[in-house]
Amino acid sequence: MVKGKVLSVKIGIGLGECKILFVGGVFKRNEYLIVGESMRQACASECHCKKGGETVVSELIQEKMKEFYSFEEAEPDVEHGEGDGIKYYLCKSL
């Protein structure tokens, strides 16, 4: 434990196909590489989080989950730019 430090997590969720490649096995280590639309959306969603403890989802997830959760449109990601044509939503209640 480090005094004055708090750990928190930002969560981004996307929907789509992905491929996972497991590599390693040397030195008792395994790694994996993930590519695909779901991973791209998840990373873009996470970039829309403004602080730890937030969950942001792509509009594809929001559309499927809107009857179970409440959402509000996420603020634009000015640091990484907008341009993928997808809207992102902050999950307000789980």
Written description of the protein model:
The structure is a single chain. This protein is of the alpha+beta class and 94 residues long. Helices cover 19% and strands 36% of the residues. It has 2 helices and 6 strands; from the N terminus they run βββαβαββ. The chain has helices at 37-47, 59-65; strands at 11-13, 18-26, 29-36, 55-58, 70-73, 88-93. The strands form 2 sheets. A 4-stranded mixed β-sheet has the order 1-4-6-5. A two-stranded antiparallel sheet has the order 2-3. β2 and β3 form a beta hairpin. The longest helix has 11 residues, at 37-47.
SSE blueprint and pairings:
Layout: E1 11-13, E2 18-26, E3 29-36, H1 37-47, E4 55-58, H2 59-65, E5 70-73, E6 88-93
Parallel strand pairs: 1-4
Antiparallel strand pairs: 2-3, 4-6, 5-6
* Oligomerization: single chain
Task: State which percent range the strand residues make up.
Answer: 35-45%
Rg (C-alpha, Å): 16 Å
Strand line-up in the sheet with most strands: 1-4-6-5
Please give the largest β-sheet: 4 strands, mixed
What is the overall pLDDT average? Answer: 88
**Weakly predicted, low-confidence segments:** none
Specify the overall morphology.
globular
State the end-to-end distance. 29 Å
The secondary-structure element order is: EEEHEHEE
Judged by helices, strands and strand pairing, the structural class is alpha+beta
By DSSP (H or I, 4+ residues per run), the number of helices equals: 2
Proportion of residues in helical segments:
10-25%
Q: How many beta-strand segments?
A: 6
